[in-house]
Each structure stands twice: as C-alpha cells, then as structure tokens.
Amino acid sequence: MDPAPFEAVFRQEAGRVLATLIRLLGDFELAEEARQEAFATALEQWPAAGVPSNPRAWLINVGRNRMIDRIRRQALFRSKILHLERADADTRAADPAPGDENEDAFGDDRLRLIFTCCHPALGIESQVALTLRTVCGLSTEAVARAFLVGEEAMSQRLVRAQRKIREAGIPYETPEPPMLDERIDGVLAVIYLVFTEGYAATSGTDLIRTELCSEAIRLGRLLDALLPNRPQVRGLLALMLLHDSRRQARISPAGDIVLLEEQDRTLWDQMQIREGLAMVEEALRAPGPVSPYAVQAAIAALHAQAPHRAATDWRQIVGLYEVLLRLQPTPVVELNHAVAVSMVDGPARALDLVDSLAARGSFDDYYLLAGVRANLLQRLGRTQEAAQEYRAALARAKLEPERRLFARRLVELGTD
Fold it and tell me: Which helix (H) or strand (E) covers residue 297, if one does?
C-alpha cells in the first residue's frame, strides 16, 4: 500500500480521533493509547483491505473497542468498564457513527477538547502550549517557535504542565456554558497558532500546510457559531480568512516563496476577502475594548483592498501597528511594525527600530529578525553587512522555501 493515503489520514484525523476518544473513554492517557492502537491496527489491515470510506469512524471504533477489551481484562477496573459500557450503549443509540460531530452546543469534539484543555488552573502559555501539542498535534519544535523559545525549554514546560495536571487532579471535563468566557483567550490563541503553523510551517519542504489552515478556519467558524457576535472571535476569523485568501499566490510553481509585493493579485480569493472585510467591520465597530485580532485583521484588510503594491496605505498600516503594540507588545509585532515603518519613513529609521529590538537580546536567534535586518541593510546599500545577516538567517531557518529565498538574496548581492 502506498503510505501517502495513510499519512494523509493521520495528518487530517489524528487530532479529531483523539478528541472523540477522550470524550468516549473519559481519560486522556487512555485515549492516547487507544489512538495509537487504532493507527497500528490500520497499518496492519489497510494495506490489504484498503482505507475505509469513513476512516475517522473506523479508527475511533477500533481504538475504543481495544481499550474496552483491555479494561475488561483488568478486574481492578471493573467498575470503570461498567460505566464505559453504559456510555457506549448511550453513544450507539444517540450517535451510530462515533466519528461524526456531536450535535451539542460545541458541534465538534476537537473544539470541545480545546476548551477542556484550556483550564484556568494553568497559566495561559501552558494552556496553549499543551493544547497545541496534545490536541492539535503540532510538533514540540512548532510549539516552541510559537512562543519564541528553544525546543528543549518548551519540552520542559510541557512536562511541568502535565505534572501539574496530575498532581493537582485537574479534571478533563467539558466546561459548562457559563465557564466558556474564562477560557476564550486560550482557545483563540490555540486556533490562531494552528493557523500560523499552517500559513508558514516551522520546518520541512512546503511553506503552507493547507490542512492546518483549513482546520483552524473550520474551528473558527464553529467558535463563532458557539459564541456569536464576539468581536475577538470575528476578528480572528476575519484575520485567518484574509491571510488565507492569498494562498494560491504565495507559492510559485516550483514551490518558492512569492513575496506579497510580487504576488499576482488576480489569484487572491475575492469571496474570502469579501467575507473577511465584512467581519473586520463588525469586529471594529463592536462596543467595548478593541481586540488585537481585529486590529491585525484590519491590517490584513488594507493589504487585501490594495489593487496593486503602490496603492497600499502604509501610513494607516503603521498607525494600526502602533495600536497593536499597545494591546500586544510582543517582539514579533515590533518587528512587523518596523517593516511597515520602512515603507513610510525609509529603511534607515526602520533599522534603528530593529537594532533596538535586537539589543534586548531575547530575540537574537529568531531567523526572521536577521532576514528583516538583511533586507533593510540591502536597501541602504550596505551590501557586506546585508550578506552577513542573510547568512545568519539561512543558518537558522529550517523551512526549505525560506532557505531558498535567503540563498537567492545572497546570490543577488554578489558578495561570494
């Protein structure tokens, strides 16, 4: 059997299979074992039998049944198996296809589990990191990049979060509707970071992981249905739609990055842009504090509305980044602000901002800092310094299309 279909099923279904198994088995570690058993069985049976028409339902059934069989063999867990069998009977009566989405308020097992894992007893960063790793299936490397820390440091953070869950007895329970608001910040961050990893992968051969972008947008739509008219939810959904609208124009036929200023704007998805623009308006006009997602979406909207590069309203973009810096003063926002400033006040002013950011030391290993600094130096005609920064960016980047971009810039400089 060609491994490609199996790998595609794993990428698309692993997280949702785990989410449903946790609901059915009521135990996170047991559900992880059940998923492993199910995929191992699939590797044994699918080469001869073929991939089933509903692979998610097949995997859930196999994983659940394997765990029930295991618990049956352990008399110590007799009381638990009785509970599971009753739950199993109820589930079969109410939902004959356990891989289908539940028709409850959440509408989806993965969204339910994201809310479950974003427990307020954990710090917001631990909530988000643990959920990205265990529920959404992102690698530790990808989760580390999201928080701008090393992979080893993130591994230790994840271990500490899991230990706290065990020692404090934090239950994996679906929160009641009144408790959703206290978890919404973590849930939004999880969905956005899933999209971010899809929009520009941490490593590998492909810039875009389409399945992650689509999954994040799907979860965003479900969240908007669950919690309607929330400006932060609408802002996030608008931001994802507007960024994703450029997907077809971001990659050349050879798989190379096409920068925003060079993209064929006729390839942008106008239906997604219209939907995103309408949501931006709703999010910005809503009463109460403005959401950082809505501000980011407003920036994306200005790019989407420009018919060509020269028509981009960079002054307004700079102003929006200044608003965003007050709401969300992160190094990444500062770096993006500097790029926008370079389009209004020139590369020299932007380089001062980037150098100030770099001088703080906590951002030194971020390859895009070197990449931005290289571009600004190149625009200033400081070729040797630009080449040094491009080499630094090339050495740190792990995504092949980005590495090829930095290599092309080095060739263009002609310093080697």
Answer: helix 292-305
Kindly report each contact of residues 5-13 with a partner whose C-beta sits within 8 Å and lies 24 or more positions away, as own/partner: 5/51, 6/42, 6/43, 6/46, 6/51, 9/42, 9/51, 9/55, 10/39, 11/137, 11/211, 12/211, 13/55, 13/56, 13/59
DSSP letter at 159 equals H
**Domains in the chain: how many in total?**
2
108 domain-assigned: no
Give the torsion through C-alpha atoms of 213, 393, 324, 355, to 10 deg. 180
User: Structure tokens of 130?
Assistant: 């643990």
Q: Examine residue 359 and state whether it is found in any structural domain, yes or no.
A: yes
Q: How far apart are CA 161 and CA 268, in angstroms?
A: 41
Q: Residue 6 is part of which domain span?
A: 1-96
Last residue of a domain, one of 75, 96, 117: 96
pLDDT tens across the length of the chain (416 residues): 556 667 777 777 887 788 788 778 877 778 888 999 999 999 889 888 888 889 989 999 999 888 887 776 665 445 555 565 555 555 554 444 444 444 456 667 788 888 888 888 888 888 899 888 877 878 899 999 888 888 999 999 888 888 887 777 777 677 887 888 889 999 999 999 999 999 999 999 999 999 999 999 999 999 999 999 899 999 999 999 999 999 999 999 999 999 999 999 999 999 999 999 999 999 999 998 999 999 999 999 999 999 999 999 999 999 999 999 999 999 999 999 999 999 999 999 999 999 999 998 777 678 999 999 999 999 999 999 999 999 999 999 999 999 999 999 999 998 76
